[in-house]
Write the structure tokens for this entry.
Amino acid sequence: MTIRTANEQPIKHNFIAGEWRPSLEYMENINPSDTNDVIARYAIASSNDVQDAVSAAATAMPVWSNSTSGERFEILDAIGSEIIQRQHELGDLLAREEGKTLKEAVAEAHRAGSLFKFFAAEVYRSETEGYRSLRQGISLEVRREPIGVVAAITPWNFPLAIPAWKIAPALAYGNTVVFKPAELVSGSAWALAEIISRAGLPEGVFNLVMGQGTEVGAALVEHADVAGVTFTGSTAVGRKIGATTFARGGKMQLEMGGQNPLIVLDDADLESAVEFAINGSFYSTGQRCTASSRLIVTEGIHDTFVAAMLHRMQGLRIGDARNPDTEIGPVVSEAQLNSNLDYLRTAKIEGARLLTGGEELKRATPGWYLSPALFTHATREMQICREEVFGPIASVISVSNYDEALLVANDSDFGLSAGIVSNDRKIIDHFTANVQAGMVQINLPTAGMDFHAPFTGRKNSSYGPPEKGSHCREFFTNSKVVHANYGERLKPKKEGS
């Protein structure tokens, strides 16, 4: 539901138990490309709203969990179709509120629609697996059943795609959902919820509660009737969610931080290596958990690579995210900009050399613009090489050979994505087998994953079953093992026999 105030500023409500519910408090959504532009005011859910949303989802579970594959397919497919039909409209909204370039934003909207369509097809997969029992005359099967109410807590950097790859499988496998988006991107979340609200789901199957994670998110995670929490965000918050969820016996799926290496070897194609680094380090303003934060480059190509990076970076067009010519949009918020500036200052203090970028920029409209930054003389001990920066900042670490490059790549508390640029198949095979990451990219940017394949990491990057693809069934369903004896000996004996 949308209403307008006297000055025509839209007001958007939460969606609970099949109704758009007003709130006592609302938050303004600001355009990072133009901070004078208020997109709308979005409801802040109360603890009572969270309670009602979870209760509605729990009440709806028996109906939805017993729905047919055909019913689920039609609804999920319809959601996906509308998202794709409206991808340009949704992409424009995403670019306006998050700062992702229009091209990237439209592509993300299309991906969100494709995810719903993928999981629409998944509902036709068999939910039962048959096995041959070790005992004569005994049948053995494993059934998959929905876990119950799922809390989907999502970040601001992919405000359509990440909610889609949590909500779509939750519904496909027969669960009900309470969706809590990051408050910075309430617009995309609300638009997605509005589409879902009209798709024909029974009342209470899907609910939207907006607001801050410390209040709304915490109330969801702590709720005894929430069977599982699927979360994407920082490692620190993920650990707190994991501890709370574990303590009350809930399931958890946690996708957290990254500090991803891209190794460039002497035999790499220079032009390709530079493009992979530019893409992975700076596209989406570096605000991706799979961003190439560490560029690990061998001595033989180091100087040439750095020079080519500098040349390429000089031509990057930084500006309003909705301008079709923009390649790098603004940072999402003032707080994120200040965090990036803190990392830049610390890197200089620790001895890294800033070759270019790292400056706040002025554009035609006031916004949180930061020029992409490139450091050299970085070491693996520096804060900028150990923590997740989440901004358009990349560090070059010089190494002598591949063996040292692999050692540096693995020297991290994170293990999400890792890439290598090389033409040596033997080295590539060794890297694939020995790099400590959940996802490996060969002669590609570290960012960019197929929506139907698992999304997963190692170490502090992930905990629990992977997201996306059919592998996520491990989180959204529980196994039930059934042994049955249907033999003759179970028939009642006749009288007199």
